[in-house]
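Late entry, written up from scratch paper. The run itself happened at the end of the previous shift, but nothing got recorded in the book at the time, so transcribing now.
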Amino acid sequence: MKYNNATDAFELLFKDIIADGVDFAGTKALFNQSFTLLNPEDKVVTTPERKFNKDYADYEWSWYLEGNRDASEIAERAKIWKQMMVPTTTEVNSNYGYFWKYNDQLKRVINDLKLNKETRRAIVVHYILHELDRYKYDTPCNDVLNFYIKDDKLHLTVFARSIGLVFGFCNDQYTFAKLMEYVSRKTKYPVGEMHWFVTNLHVYPRHYDMFNK
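Output as recorded:
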């Protein structure tokens, strides 16, 4: 499926999940979903019922850029981060920026794209194998980001293991759109499309009647 922007994707995927989703792990879920955002820079979800907080999304983006796993400050803005902290610490594993900096993954992606616009190796991995024991407390939802140049535009493919549509997708697509813009400035290629492959895309029960309130 192709969606014009983040708002279209959110609203239509929500309807699909509610209509056709299966009961799985306390949610309604669709498996092995693939879709495209044609204009990822149109990243603010404007659906009134969603109440997307751009100020928070920008704060989260800045926190990712720091690559600091300490979630004590951002947890004051979004309490879910407190639930995800590794016991006896204030750290979480889902600061994507930590992985971007790990072994200079993002820096290498940018250099690869600059040197060879046909590279198929411009990837960032959001997993570190020797840390797997930590992930039982907080497992990154998006596993791999794959950048590439096609038709002289910068495209991104997101591979995700599990995404909650209402909070996870809405905030993550905003972050990854900002990341595309960042890489675009560094490589001088304009932003193209954002493609998603999601093993489990779901909605939690507290949101089932979001559009009925």
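The chain has a mean pLDDT of 97.
(Scratch paper discarded after transcription.)
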